[in-house]
Amino acid sequence: MTSTLPAGADILGAMPQRVSATVMVGRDAPLDTLRGSVAALAATGGRVVVVGGEAGAGKTRLVTEFVDGLGEGTRVLLGGCLELGEALLPLAPLAGILRQLGQELGDEQAAAEVGPELAAFLPGRSGGNVESLWSGQASLFEAFSALLDRLSSQGPLVLVLEDLHWADRSTLDLLTWLSRTVVTSPVLLVATYRSDEMRRSHPLRAVLAEMSRLPQVERLELEPLGEADVVALLNDIQGDALPAELTRQVVERSEGNPFFAEELLAAVGSGSMPLTLRDILSARLDKLPEPAKEVLRIAAAAGRRVDHRLLEVVASLGPDELDAGLRSAVEEQALVAESDGFRFRHALLQEAVHEQLLPGERTRLARSFADALLADPSLAGGGAAAVDAELAHHAAASHDLDLAFTSLVRAGRRARSLFAFNEARRHYQGAIELAGKVSADAAASVPPTWELLRAAAFCCRQSGEPAIGVGHLRQAISLLDEETDRVAIGGLYAELSEGLWINGEGDEALVAAEEGVRLLTGYRTREAAEAFGFRARLLMLLGRFDEAVEPGRLGVEIAREVDAPLELSRAENALGTSLASLGEIDEGLPRLKEAIEIGRRNNIGADTVRGYINLVSSLKTPIDDVAQAEVWAREGMAFAKEHGITGSMCDWLRMEYGDVLIRLGRWAEAEDVLTEVRTGFSTGVSGLYFEVSHGLLAVTQGNLEEAEDHLRRSHELAPIIRDPQAIAPQVGVRMLIELGRGRHEVGDAIDLLAPHILDAQTYGPLALTARVCTVAALAGDPSGITGLRRIQELFEKRSDGANAVQAGNIAGWLSVVAAEIARAEGKDDPELWAAALAAMTERVQAEHALYAGVRLADALGSADRLDEATEQAGRTHQAALAIGAVPLAAEVEMLARKHRLKLPGIATTQGAAGLTGREREVLRLVGQGRTNREIGTELFISEKTASVHVSNILAKLGAANRGEAAAIGRDRGI
């Protein structure tokens, strides 16, 4: 559809020589935001600005204007996503950034600068051996973060990631990673995306939602230009004022989109006004000479950017015609010349040209691209090393299934070597889909289909898609014959067991592990060692330590016999942990140390660190040698640092060390260690452990809403995991939150913990559940006593047949439960609480010991042993304040007022308790049941400030929780 131009419009003559304005209009505010962000880097640390807007809104123009205005001391690295998305090079922005560094520094210096994990992205270099590395994609991302740290130490660094609506999954993972880790360096990350591409299922939507929660992330949305800005844009292009009617039509039909406005103006020379984008672009591009149109068709089939050499090979034009066509395309601002090629001025231009290609043209051009890449792989957009992914795309488009099949297999290997596991999985899956449609020669040139399925399953496990990987492994097993392929099937069942466990299907994982062991019983192979070792590890993780011993011993025996160091280290680790948990310390600990030594000797980084993790965990629980646990945790982290080990395994060791520090009551140090964890946002038990550790620190310091957020996220990250190391800490934090909120709902806590009573990790959370039961009983709820008796029975049953180490541990926790039962029955006994305090002190359980000290002071006061009560209260109060245990310190102050005890520096008189005016306002809102967030909104303060006020109020009033503080306030008329 067109409309006739008003009289006088012909003064414009032919299409304007310039299409784009020389100035940017209407974007001063977002430009100021970007400039302010880079200026504040030194003071605030890293920042992230995400720029969204519909196609043509001016995102690239804004970023270009910003970058062009930066001072000489600021380094800029740019990377963009490819418009064919996941069909091409994985981690395209990272590859582009590293290639830019290679051009700036030279290949050799760049390789030395980026390190071995990233060097594979440089020309002529390959990826690492995934099987020998310890941390997968996290290691790659950590290496990139370290590179940014080094570069930003030389001056401010701006990192630009463009066109995230085309991002592959690995790039989105990198974006998430950088958004969380960029705060440690003076780095500004600027990311752009097309908001009109954000359909409900688009994977970027979830990533942006998660990023928006981070304080260092700011989102900008480029709104349509106002009428005055569009007029200024048009006048700048034309060099003079336009006729009013023409201006009105452009303003109305562009709807504030600067690219549409520019193209509308460029198309009016025909004497009519196009109404659709296709008409707009067609009206302008149709005026180009035929060589220019041919160049644009080829470039559009290649993507938004095309190498000049590739155009020379594919174009059916002579050198002079090609040059003339390119010159016309550039002069008419359809293409923009770059150092070694050309790109479309805007992605919408490329899309419009590509849509006009006939099916036969697309097939012909795809065949030409495939032939060109086969002849010269360096023509690929990602360089020769990345040619297979691009080749597979063009081969499929040209219906060459054999070439597409073999290229997909090679592309899968390449992506896997770069730890781009999601993209590798897609390549393998594409090959598997073609496997039955290719020639016998093509099929024979790559591994059999069952091995491709196994490779795809491995990538699924690494990329957080274990359920898909389980399906691949089941399909692989179905392709093999048990009589002739027994060993291979047994190995696949071992991997299937691991995949099921990662997916939270513990029972099914055991069934698969048993099938692997059945098939491989009597075999002395690496697969047999793997199967027995993993069955031992699985039973250990599920807290079934006694059952884990036999397969663990057999796994060790076979691994030694066939000289399989990786399987040997893992089997020793599982066996040693199980024996230590059973109280067989004299054998268990040496085996754990041997697992570490095997990893060291054979350069198996992951399993060396895994050995340290389980040694620290065993020393901490159930052996209660927390001092030695700290020694080994420090040694393990020193080993990781010395050997450059990063990623999730190293982070798990940090979290174990953090738990050691929590046990020791060194909570500030624990917080510092946990802030160094880079993979805490990952799905599965690792992310759960991270969130629960933070939740424990938050709730013990009185930050209840923060603790609730951490607990909620722990469930989101691992919704179906049911092993003790996941369930127990979650229950513990939940019970402390109940107490902090003044509630006494036990719910399913005992039912969740009871099946895992053999695992000492459940003991502390059971004791916390007992506290809640006591509060329930004191409130008149009969279920409280019932729950306490059940917990006591669980411990007593566990002690039957226990060895000396186990029995001593259980006896300590039984003393806590006995004291709780007496209190719940109205017989608070100082001697029972003294025994509980001694037991918790001996086990280095700082929070439990402080709580027992509080209860002892209260029991002494109730028994009129006031001197002893005063001494105990003062000692406990000082200890609680020293480690930041605000709720327990407040409870001591409350019982001091109750029994008229004198605490150093704390008045025992009634009244306003020294509350400030602001604190009285906060207390009023607490009494109305408001959350910290709601208090902050009403009083125009931050949620964190509101939380601090609430903590101070609890301490001053001596209240144990918010409900008690509100009650005290009402009683005192505050």
UniProtKB/TrEMBL annotation:
Q: Highest taxon of the source?
A: Bacteria
> What is the protein name for this chain?
LuxR family transcriptional regulator
Pfam name, any one? GerE
Q: Which GO terms describe its molecular function?
A: adenylate cyclase activity; ATP binding; DNA binding
UniProt entry keywords in alphabetical sequence: ATP-binding, Nucleotide-binding
Q: Top-down, what is the taxonomic lineage of the species of origin?
A: Bacteria, Bacillati, Actinomycetota, Actinomycetes, Propionibacteriales
> Per its UniProt record, what Gene3D superfamilies does this chain match?
Tetratricopeptide repeat domain, Winged helix-like DNA-binding domain superfamily/Winged helix DNA-binding domain
Query: CDD domains recorded for this chain?
Result: LuxR_C_like (cd06170)
Q: State the Gene Ontology BP annotations.
A: regulation of DNA-templated transcription
- One GO location term (cellular component): cytoplasm
